[in-house]
Each structure stands twice: as C-alpha cells, then as structure tokens.
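Q: what sequence does this backbone want?
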C-alpha cells in the first residue's frame, strides 16, 4: 500500500489502489450501514473522510485516538471534498479517553485555554494553521535569499555584546558560579542571549557581498503585554557596495512580495481561517 499524508490524499489527481493513511481522529459517526471517520495528520487544515463498514468499529475508535487506515482512495461524491478513503482495515494505534481529553469535539477553544496544554494545543485548528504558515514562511525566507545569492550565516546565540541598544538583555549565569563568593563568568566576561545578529553580519559583509541570518533573538523587556515577546525569530540581512537607500528598499519589497505570495499560495485555507476567526478585522 502507498503511504499518503492527508494533504496528498486530498490533492491526488486521480483515484489510487491500496493506500495507507495515518493520523488522529477528528470525528466518528456510526450509522446502520456505514461508518464515517474524519482524520487529520497535521499536513492540512481539511480533514480526510474515511468510509468504512460498521463492522470495523471498536470501542477504542474515538475522537482523539491515533489510527492507521488502509483501503482504496476514491473520488468523493460530496462536492466539499475531492477524495475519500474506502477503508478495508482500521487499526487503533493509540487509544484516547474522550472524558479526560482536554480538547472536545466540535468546540472552538479559546487560545488562553489551549495554552494550558502545550503537548496537545497543536492539534487545534488555530495552532495547527499558525505552525503551517510559519513553516512555509521560513522556507520562503531561505528560498528568496538563496535564489538571490545570499550566504546564510549562523550568528551566535550566546554573545558578549549588545547591538546598538536593541533591547534589554538576558544575562547568562552558570549554576556553579552561584556557589562562588567571587563574581565568576564562564567566558571570563559577562555573556548574554543575543538581541540581534547584526554586528556579526556586518563583520561577514566585509568578506561576502550578501549575507543573511534567520534565528532566535531574545529581549528581556519588563513588560507582560502581548505586544512584547521575550523570544522571537528575526530575519536580518547585510549588503555590501550599495549605492543608495533604493537598493535596500528594493530588496525588502521583493522579499515581502515573495514570502507573502508563497504563504498565500501554499496555505490559503490556513490564512482564511485567521481572517475569519482569529483576526477578522485584519484582512
């Protein structure tokens, strides 16, 4: 049997013979003559419908359980979905107790509630869509710079310098230094989590005409608001031999257009989810 992800099964141009799909059950609906499942593996916002004989149902086949379905990929008679799987076997890989499972069927949980369950929140539509968009955007950033001849530089996360007053720094301390009466530093100088890779990129720009970095940065700003993140990923680039500000503005415009176009083309359903439910006034 051909192993398919849900995204691949939904986008298949034509029916296939024996296929195998693995994922987590989003809904179970048992009728007298047919059993319907909807499963998702995180590759798509849309679920894959599985049609099976009621005899394949068992007590462990519940919302949230992990399953492996084997059968035939056929065209779906429903207009909302291109393909579906006619199951021949359904194996429950991991059972789920629906009573204690914090995510409930057909309920839109607030983000504040989902933050309590970091090991399960990525199964929600909102967080799943966010992570898929981030993944495609990250790949698009790298693709743009690589296609335009930039060298990717891995700037250090632990550094001894600030970056032109970019923000408050997290200072690093080693555990054994706390037991010493004298002020002891691991590198013999104070060390911090980076607030920017700019200074290291500027050094590299003395040997490479085009460089960029994309990595985590940290800001120890004394604020607990949603507008201030202690950790986030930042894209930075340096160009040598620029003639004027227009050169830099053109790169920024091309980068923005390229990444936005990629995200909109590869994650249209995920973007629409945010426009509809998460930030309806931001479209």
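A:
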């Amino acid at each position: 049997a051909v192993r398919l992800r849900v995204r691949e099964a939904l986008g298949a141009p034509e029916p296939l013979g024996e296929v195998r799909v693995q994922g987590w059950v989003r809904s179970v609906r048992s009728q007298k003559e047919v059993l319907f499942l909807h499963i998702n593996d995180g590759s798509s916002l849309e679920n894959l419908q599985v049609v099976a004989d009621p005899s394949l149902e068992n007590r462990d086949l519940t919302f949230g359980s992990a399953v492996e379905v084997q059968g035939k990929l056929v065209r779906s008679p429903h207009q909302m979905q291109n393909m579906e799987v006619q199951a021949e076997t359904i194996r429950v890989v991991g059972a789920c107790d629906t009573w204690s499972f914090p995510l409930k069927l057909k309920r839109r949980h607030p983000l504040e509630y989902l933050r309590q369950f970091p090991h399960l929140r990525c199964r929600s539509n909102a967080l799943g869509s966010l992570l898929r968009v981030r993944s495609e955007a990250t790949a698009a950033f790298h693709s743009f710079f690589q296609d335009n001849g930039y060298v990717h530089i891995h700037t250090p996360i632990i550094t001894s310098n600030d970056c032109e007053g970019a923000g408050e720094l997290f200072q690093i301390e080693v555990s054994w230094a706390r037991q010493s009466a004298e002020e002891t530093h691991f590198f013999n100088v104070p060390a911090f989590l980076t607030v920017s890779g700019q200074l290291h990129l500027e050094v590299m720009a003395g040997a490479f005409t085009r460089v960029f970095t994309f990595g985590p940065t940290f800001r120890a700003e004394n604020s607990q608001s949603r507008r201030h993140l202690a950790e986030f990923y930042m894209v930075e680039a340096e160009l040598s031999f620029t003639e004027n500000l227009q050169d830099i503005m053109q790169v920024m415009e091309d980068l923005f257009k390229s990444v936005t176009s990629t995200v909109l083309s590869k994650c249209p359903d995920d973007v629409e989810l945010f426009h509809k439910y998460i930030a309806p006034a931001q479209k």
